[in-house]
Amino acid sequence: LKTSEIEAGGTDVTTTYHESLGNANSGFEPLAIPFESANTTIFARVESNNSSNCYNTTSFELQVFETPIPKASSDISAIELCDDTLVGTDADGKNLFNLKLRETDILNGQAASKFEVRYFKDAAFTQAINDPENFENTVSGGQTIFVQMYNVGNNNCVDSTSFELIVHSLPVIKNPLVKVEQCDLNVFNLTTYQQDISEGHLN
What we know:
three-stranded antiparallel β-sheet; mainly beta; rod-shaped; 203 residues
C-alpha cells in the first residue's frame, strides 16, 4: 500500500521492506508481502534496478487497531416499557427510552474506553439519535434501533448490530365496578371474572 507513495513516481526501481534500518541498508531479509504484524516501525529500501549500490531508505509506522465485535442483535434483549403519559397519551404506543441501557451488551466485553457506540433510527445509518438517553420512539408500539460501534482511534474500524424497543399497551378496564356474587361457598374464584374486568386479559 505504501510502495507507490514511497517511490513517488520513480521508475526502474525496486522497493523492499525490512524490520530494521540495518537490514534496509544491507538489503538483508526483506519482509514477505503480505506482512503480519502488531504496532511497529517498518524500514523501506528503494533500490535502483541498474545498480544495487544506488539506494535510499525511509521508514513509516504500522498501527494496528482493535476490531469492534458488537454482540449479535439476536443476543441483545429488547428494552420494554409500558405505555404511559410520560410522552403523549397512555394509548399512543410512545415512551421515553434510555438506549444506553444496552451499551454494555453491545460492547460485548470490549473496553468502553476504546470504542464509541452510536445509535440510529434507520438501517442506512443516516438518521442519528443525538440524545440516546432520552429517545422517544418514532414508531408506535416500538421500533428497531440500529447501532454502529467504532474504534475511537480509527473510525474505519466499525461494525454494526441492532436491538428492539417495545411499548406494551396498558390493559383496558371494561367495568371498573364489577359486582361479584355467588352462593355462600367461602371461596371466590376471581379468575373467572377476568374477561369482565379487562380487555385482552389473556395477555
